[in-house]
Amino acid sequence: MSLAASPRWSSRFSRRWTTLVACGGLLLAAACAPPFAIKRNVLGAQRQAATNVLTTGELSRPTRNVLYAYDLVARYRDDPTGAIAVLHGELVADRLRPESVLTLSELAFHHARHGGGSPYYLASALYAWAYLFPVEASARPDRFHTVRIAAELYNRGLTQGLQRNGNVELRTESHPLPFGTLDVAVDPAALVWSRHQLYDFFPLTDIEVTGFPTYYRWPGLGAPLAAKVVPHEGDADLLAPRARVPVTAVLRPTRLGTELRDGTVHATLEVYPGYGDTTIEVDGLKVPLEAEPTAAMGLMLAETAIWKQELTGFLQGAGVIQGRTRLVSTRPYRRGLIPVVFVHGTGSSAIRWAELYNELDNDPRIHDRFQFWFFSYETGNPIIYSSSLLRDALEHAVARLDPDGVDPALRHMVVMGHSQGGLLTKMTVVDSGDAFWRNVSTTKTLDEMRLRDDTRALLQHVMFVRPLPFVRRVVFVSTPHHGSYIAGNWLAHQFARLISVPGDVTTAVTDLATADREAFAIRGIRGAPTAVDNMTPGNPFVKKLAQLPIAPGVVAHSIISVDADPPPQGKNDGVVDYDSAHIEGVESELVVRSPHSCQSNPHTMAEVRRILLEHLAETPADTGAR
């Protein structure tokens, strides 16, 4: 039998042929298959579109495209400085397309993060400037998203490039660049703002701020910083001693197109306070400035020890809050800005207004027309005494800031108080006559009492109250006009026994109780009254204050917190009953669903904004800022 006819060989041949055909088919199919594929992946596609060195730390698609076009993909991986130098050479030789200049900025920033350091951060900022403001106006970028990326690279490159030991150094000096030197000039006058010296510039680009219900950032150009300030000697101002103000630093090259080629770049470093200019001009263009006001305030609050004063300030009647810091502002005084004064409540501090202030001051309509002052006091003291400190502080501030009376804005002041602070606020706009004195004596006038001169002067000052003529509007927030049921309970009064009142108040009460006992209306007194006593329902002080009308010409508003479903009558916020906070004679009353501390409630914020805008509309036009 022949080999060809062998059944075993025939079967083996058939299997081999089938295998060869199958393999050949697979090879042919693979050779013909397209090298591209797509699949639906929404998140992946969005991530690729948004990828850049700032968002993910990876290079963007356009930058990878440029590296591929110049055959620099492998070179950048193995020798990033060499790859960047190649593209820099293309730039100075005018062979790099305008849109590819942004690639240089991103590559420099990427390499700076991976070992290149400050020279490459500064190079990234300069390349970004060259992209945003090219020599030829026709080469200006017209793509919104690339402009935003370029501005961010400029801002962060500048911030990182000038950073030393955690702070940004703003001074005249030379810096190394990958291709030469950057000579920076700073005018000392740029570091002076409204007669205040700016110093200690803290970068805000990379900090995370928590605790604020709303966060504000003004996008634009420049390194956002928070600076400390100190007034020049002898300058009368209310600026808080530990204030941080938002500022923006801008590095402005003089002849960047030419100097990139020469290797020495000259630039001026400009500093703009966040409460001043909001735009600058570059090559005839109006360019917004970057600022981080919420971050600047968060940094200031994190650095202050005022939180520790809240309980101490309640228990200790004097020495906790220094007289010069009872009334402070967030920025230097500027003529034409209407003061809004915040007065905190019991066991509290000025910090409790931070969320509301952050919301108001980032509204341009309010930011440009108002200045914000914060009053602090030891909250355990008698309310009549604390209110005298508030009135004194406001009178002294107006006299110091405007001794010639040429600023009408100071005469349209708004005072806003929360809880006990609302009672202090009302004391700025009432005419008490002898109403409070009659709580002390119903048979003799103050002049008829046998008292020491210092006691008589103190009593005259705190008990006979006239409305402050420059306060035109008041806002009561969760205010116990008829007392607080919390203040009236047994535990509150036991706690109040721990309160120490100021020595002059104790001396005055002792003098009253011993010098003319027959005329003294209060029997069985154990010592000077505290704020807890004053806010107890039925207390003579709070009863008299509730009866006093608000002075003519003053507009009043109530914001009342109730932590329950409507209607509010008979309900409370955990501290104050609605029926205690409700008073007649106010222009508006808003009830918000909230616990007692309602300053950060969105409805409270919206109502305060409405009130301030209403105040602007009703204020004469000659009070504008100058």
Percent of residues in helices comes to 25-40%
| Rg on CA atoms, Å | 35 Å
- Percent range for β-strand residues: 15-25%
Largest sheet: 7 strands, mixed
Shape: elongated
Major beta sheet, strand line-up: 3-4-9-8-7-6-5
How would you portray this structure in words?
It is a single chain. The longest helix is centred in the first third of the chain and has 26 residues, at 7-32. This protein has helices at residues 7-32, 42-50, 61-69, 73-78, 80-92, 101-116, 118-132, 144-161, 256-262, 293-303, 309-315, 354-361, 364-367, 383-401, 420-426, 453-463, 490-496, 503-515, 531-534, 540-547, 578-581, 602-617; strands at 163-164, 167-168, 173-177, 180-185, 192-193, 196-203, 223-231, 244-253, 264-273, 279-282, 285-288, 327-329, 338-343, 370-375, 413-418, 471-477, 555-562, 588-593. It has a seven-stranded mixed beta sheet. Strands 12-14-13-15-16-17-18 form a seven-stranded mixed beta sheet. Strand 10 and strand 11 (285-288) form a beta hairpin. By secondary structure, it is α/β, with parallel strands linked by helices. Helix 7 runs antiparallel to helix 8. The protein is elongated. It starts with 6 loop residues before the first helix and ends in a 9-residue tail after the last helix. Residues 1-5, 26-30 and 490-499 have low confidence and may be disordered.
Topology, please?
Layout: H1 7-32, H2 42-50, H3 61-69, H4 73-78, H5 80-92, H6 101-116, H7 118-132, H8 144-161, E1 163-164, E2 167-168, E3 173-177, E4 180-185, E5 192-193, E6 196-203, E7 223-231, E8 244-253, H9 256-262, E9 264-273, E10 279-282, E11 285-288, H10 293-303, H11 309-315, E12 327-329, E13 338-343, H12 354-361, H13 364-367, E14 370-375, H14 383-401, E15 413-418, H15 420-426, H16 453-463, E16 471-477, H17 490-496, H18 503-515, H19 531-534, H20 540-547, E17 555-562, H21 578-581, E18 588-593, H22 602-617
